[in-house]
Amino acid sequence: MRPTKIYVNEILKLIENKLVSGCANVTGGGLEDNIKRVIPNKLCAKIQLNKIKPHQIFKWLKSQGVSNKEMIKTFNCGVGFCIIIKPKNLKRIKKFFPKNYQPYIIGKIIKGRKSTILNGKIKW
Q1: Which among 10, 2, 3 is positioned nearest to 81, based on CA atoms?
Q2: What's the mean pLDDT in 11-29?
């Protein structure tokens, strides 16, 4: 296993270039609990679970009988960091990351009372 990727250098460059609206390190509590901490009132992060690209290790864990709920909450299915950006900046933002850690879209910010919504299912 490889050590966890630390995104501090990339994120500092994005902040310096004013390309970040918010960000969340996804740790214990999973996507739902960590992303909601950076969502302002009356907005909601709508996450499409089918957009997540789980690495082989997470597919293996799932095959060992771990529930979908636990995979999302405990293991985050490999999503270690979320950046909230303006969609028009995605191409520019990708240039700050190495090829093996390219960011990709898993959701969007919408109006809503609940701070995070998880939709769909992860493709194992």
Answers
A1: 10
A2: 93
Alpha-carbon distance of 42 to 2, in angstroms, equals 39
Fill in the amino acid letter for 71.
M
Query: pTM of this prediction?
Result: 0.88
For residue 111, the SS3 value is strand
So where are the chain's domains? 8-119
Under CATH, which architecture does the 8-119 domain have?
Alpha-Beta Complex (3.90)
Percent of the chain that is helix, strand, coil (3-state, to 5)? 40, 20, 40
Backbone CA torsion sign across 88, 26, 62, 68: negative
Nearest Cα neighbor of 32 from 52, 47, 51, 54 is: 47
